[in-house]
């Protein structure tokens, strides 16, 4: 759980996170609340299938637990995301940067964020005094 505390502490000032937090401070479960939540999740890369799963799950929880306000649903929402993150293989584990040279291969469809993620990783490694070399390649 320490990982998620760190993760949430690191992103608490993020615009997207504060938008979601604001949404969950709303007064009622209006259609607007569910629409806004759906839009925010999709904009936050949650993916259409998982977004639908979250919304359906939260609607069921709100109904079965007779919740009246989004604030009462906030912890249920957070736990749902944390449970999903916990299913990701290697979640929370550090990269083991051995043996040297340590090679990371980024593969993905066009525009899926490879270069951005490579840049973020390179910055992290450099901050730990690792030397980073980047190389790009393409299929033909
Ligand atoms: N929402 C969101 N956008 C991202 C993320 N990472 C990258 N982007 C944006 O997605 C767009 C494409 O990112 P790139 O890093 O250029 O993707 P790429 O896979 O290297 O793209 P190609 O080299 O063209 O295949 C840019 O506008 C990025 O700002 C992310 O984690 N979330
Ligand atoms: Mg790229």
Description:
The chain has 140 residues and is mostly helical. The protein has 2 domains: 13-86, SRP54, nucleotide-binding domain (Four Helix Bundle (Hemerythrin (Met), subunit A)), CATH 1.20.120; 94-140, no CATH class. Helix content is 54%, strand content 0%. The chain is elongated and about 55 Å long. The termini are far apart. The protein binds guanosine-5'-triphosphate (GTP) and magnesium ion (MG). Magnesium ion is lined by residues 114-115.
In summary, what is this structure?
Helix content is 54%, strand content 0%. The chain contains six helices and no strands.
CATH topology annotation of the largest domain: Four Helix Bundle (Hemerythrin (Met), subunit A)
The helix fraction, in percent, is: 40-55%
At CATH's second level, what is the architecture of the largest domain?
Answer: Up-down Bundle
Structural class: mainly alpha
Number of strands: 0
Strand content of the residues, in percent? under 5%
Rounded mean pLDDT score: 87
Shape: elongated
Instruction: List ligands, each type once.
Output: guanosine-5'-triphosphate, magnesium ion
The Cα radius of gyration reads: 19 Å
Poorly predicted sequence stretches spanning 5 or more consecutive residues: none
In quaternary terms, these chains amount to: single chain
H and E order:
HHHHHH
- Major sheet details: none
Q: What layout of secondary structure does this protein have?
A:
Layout: H1 2-11, H2 15-23, H3 31-43, H4 48-64, H5 74-86, H6 114-127
Helix pairs in contact: 2-3, 3-4
């Amino acid at each position: 759980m320490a990982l998620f505390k760190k993760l949430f502490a690191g992103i608490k000032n993020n615009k997207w996170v504060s938008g979601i937090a604001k949404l969950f401070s709303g007064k009622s479960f209006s259609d607007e609340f569910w629409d806004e939540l759906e839009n925010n999740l999709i904009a936050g890369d949650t993916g259409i299938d998982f977004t639908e799963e979250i919304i359906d799950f939260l609607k069921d929880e709100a109904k079965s637990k007779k919740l009246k306000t989004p604030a009462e649903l906030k912890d249920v929402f957070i736990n749902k995301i944390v449970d999903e993150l916990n299913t990701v293989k290697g979640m929370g584990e550090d990269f083991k940067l051995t043996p040297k040279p340590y090679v990371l291969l980024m593969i993905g469809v066009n525009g899926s964020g490879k270069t951005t993620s490579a840049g973020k990783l390179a910055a992290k490694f450099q901050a730990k005094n690792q030397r980073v070399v980047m190389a790009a390649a393409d299929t033909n």
